[in-house]
Structure prediction request, 474 residues.
Amino acid sequence: MKNRVLVVDDDQSECDLLEVSLSWLGCEVSSTTSPLVALERAAQQPFDVIITDLGMTELDGLELCDRILGTTPEVPVVVVTGQGSMDTAIAAMRAGAYDFITKPVSSDVLGLSVLRAARHRRLTSEVKRLREAAISTEPDGTLVGDSPPIVRVRDLIQRVGPSDASVLIHGETGTGKELVARAVHAASLQKDGPFVAINCAAVPANLLESELFGHARGAFTDAKMQRQGLFVKASGGTLFLDEIGEMPLEMQAKLLRALQERTVRPVGSNEEVGFNARIVTATHRDLEADVEKRRFREDLYYRVNVVKIDVPPLREREGDILTLAMRFLARFAGRSGKGSLAISPPAASKLLAYNWPGNVRELENAIERAVALARFDHLTVADLPDKIRAYRAEHSLNGGEGKQEILTLEELDRRHILGALALLGGNKARTAEVLGVDRRTLYRRLDKYQGKSQGGGQNEDSEGEAGVVESVFQ
Prediction:
């Protein structure tokens, strides 16, 4: 989708110049020499970014910026001026400008500024939409999200639900495997029956048989009365065996017999007891590999794996991250009495950039923590856990000879400037001339980059757009 940009400058030649540059950068551009016309257009058309000159006769750029924010506060305004002073920059930011660029405008700087501003606009709109959607009629426990991977999971659940086929749910820790199991139960013909769950990894091996099959009175020390096992308790509903891959081999043989015969023998009893429960299992392990290594019985594997549902990790559900975050935010804000909290665009950007090794469970924990620490009516980057704030994606591509790094724009800018300085023998005046920037800009960049280790962290109090070069005074 092209970024829709409105250019405002009372000098037609400046409008034309910016329009050509932005069109070349792939933007959908319109321009006007009248700030008042710009106000009308901004109120009537959905622009992603507005770029305005500072010194105009009909209405100066600061007043235009202030009035645009009053009518369409979600649209970022970038101020362009030939007056590159700190006072001017501060005045622009106080008026609500998103960014500040000095003339002559570099096409690279312009492109970066528009890209950041447009992304900020989209994040702001998305957070607002999700905040409204979070107050929905869907109860907690519903599979949330519209990303293609989770849509496929929901479709498979609806197809397999009405049958009595055994279901194996596979997914990383924290992806919501029990939630999927409950959804299978809710879609089944036994949905009015009980849903009984047990984590096979959490029960000691010597007690697991008694938990599943029950025991007779006096079967062992402390067995003072007869007890039903979970297979019988789940009759008429669903028995969910979580982390079945952790079950000891000896217990696997007994489980296989129970599934084949549809009966269980309580510990210490000679009587067989029938059950009528659907079996749903889950694991984070690769059971096929465990079968090959003889850690899991092959016959049991095929018995429980009639239909397999793979639950995607959160890093493959990018479109659902903010949806889930807003759902958790609404829940925890309500519990803590903090009313209606929002997520700031910089914080949202950090959530989207993180790779979530702990999946949905980690996201839930991060939002609960952020709500507890929140000082404003919205979550900021500072409220997020350290590892999310400091996270910088490290990617590589196999190409040509060996591996090639994918650099952030900030790191690319750093290497380019320092490389040019080295090639020109440390001559800063010549370097500034070749790079097309003034000396003050170069000196500020050098102060920033020469004291920074390669691949160093990002200022956590910045806008949160990881790896984007700041364009003030460029």
